[in-house]
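yo

u said u wanted the structure for the complex thing, so here. seqs first:
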Amino acid sequence: MTEYTEHLIKAPRRDATDKFRYVWLVIVPLIAILSQVYIPRFVSFLAYLELPLLVTVHYALSRGGPIPSLLYGMAIGLAQDSLSHQPIGMFGIVKTLVGYFAATVSVRFEVENPVVTFILSFFFYFFHQFLYWVFSRALLAEAITFDAQQTLMFGLLNAAVALPLFRVLDKLKVAQ
Amino acid sequence: MDFFLSRYRSLTVLLIVIATQLLLIAYQVKTNKDVPLIRVWAVTTVTPAEQGLELVRRYTWGFVEDYFVLLGVRSENEKLKHENGTLKIENHYLKSELSTADRAQALSVFKAQSPSTTVAARVIGNGTGANSKVVFVDRGSASGVESGMAVVTPDGIVGKVVDAYPTASLVMLMTDPTFAAGVVSQKNRVHGTLKGQGHSECLVDYVQNEEPVDVGEWFYTSGDDRIFPKGFPVGQVRAARNGKTFKEIYVAPSGMQGGVEEVLIVLEGVHQEIPEGVIASPGYKILAPPVVSGSDSPAAAGTSAAQATDADRLRQIYKQAGASQNHVFGEGTPGSKPPDFTKIPNLRGAAPAGNANPPAPAQPGVASNSPAGPAGAAAPKPAAPAVPPPNSAPNKSTTGNSAVSAKSPAPAAPGQGAPASVPKPKPQAGAVIADPGPTDGNPPSETTSAPAPKADRAAPSVPLNAGPSAPRLQTPASQQ
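structre next:
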């Protein structure tokens, strides 16, 4: 294990005093959900851009607490479910798990590193899509196929978008 | 329990949250009911923002879209303007090409009809000098062009060659101030000298004030200058008034109207007859003469309108006589036996021309079978019959006044062949024909066609001797 990888893995936990203003905790996911339901009307391929997921991951990686992160993910997921035709709870469960695990792994990684951000974003997108596919088949008995190659490709897309997005969201944090 | 919750608090919360949502999903799937509270709240929260976004987008995006549309319209407008300009240029070019083709065709037709030997040339440049009206044409001495040759178009004269180079010639236009040519008026044969004025009109000088010249009258070349053959149209009188010494007659050159681009250089000129006929004054239109119907003219019953005159009836009689003897007018060598006109049955009994009660003219196919009248019957000397060949168009002299046709050959219409007349028969005993008129079968060199200044104007052509001092003006063989 090199010094660099040790730095990435064993980085000290970020300052927990970096807090978000509460208003941004509402506005940012709202904008993300709005973007998800509104922008694909004009740019169809942006439907694969999972902004609520990226917001959840960013919050979980930044906040560091598993419980707030899973609750935050749950809220965003339920909001997504509310605007979909699926039973409420599908996205809620998935994003709850994403929030929880993202907050868990953030303890071990230097999440402000762009490479780590890119890898984690890509991983959690794949994880999110895979869990959603599992729950759809298990709970709703929907015959949905899981296209791993396509999911990987869109995972890269979301990871690429996550880098500048996290930079923007970091600006909203308030140093205390 | 407390230890478990405190140590695995986050995992516990996760499990609770997951379980709750699983129960929620199970409830929805089991009962097939929705959870309206959550959806209502979510939709109520999201949709106003969505409507606001849509409202903003509608105006902003519509504005941007209109802007880009206008940008497209502007670029499209520029493109259409450019295309329109290109099409205009192309249209102008095609019109020019068509006009050039028309002029070339007119020149070709005129060249084929004119008895004069000409060579077509194209104006390739103007001469230098502010007041000089000279142009260069693309025919020179290599093409047989010499200085002093006439330059014409089907509409009239243009000028004369002043310098001939191997590959080009310098042509002085008739509007040049130093240009002069002999001209004659059409109606009264008033002779004068055409002089260029440096502008669009020319002056006909040396015409006495007492000479009648009307506005609208045509002037033709008189051939006096030994440059232009007689009979070429010069132009129409625009203004004519008495001057101090001579009349001031201004003529609009007909050969230069619309510019000069293609011309004919007269290599060997042949004099032609100046067309007969009175030209109506500008602004007047003369209707065609009325057709005499059978009911209006009982005497002409059974005859066509073309046989309304005595000359026509006589012509028909002689034609029938020739047909009955298997003679075709216009054929046969000189000295061959002509048809026997003494066997014309009703000629002796025919009333003289102008008789108030002339007998009915011989009907086609009837006259030859009728018995001959008594020899030496009182029959006036008939007018000389002028029988044009079948392909010869009737003209004014043959259909109107037989006396005119007896003295001069029938002028040919533009674009037609030489006028023909019946062969001169040898008078026989008892024959009443003294002078049948012009002979038929004249050699082609004796008959010429005249230029056609206008399409509706017949142009008779009679080659005249220009004298020995005019080497390029061809002398007809019959008059040599």
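The longest strand of chain B covers residues 117-126. Residues 36-113 of chain B form the longest helix (78 residues).
cya
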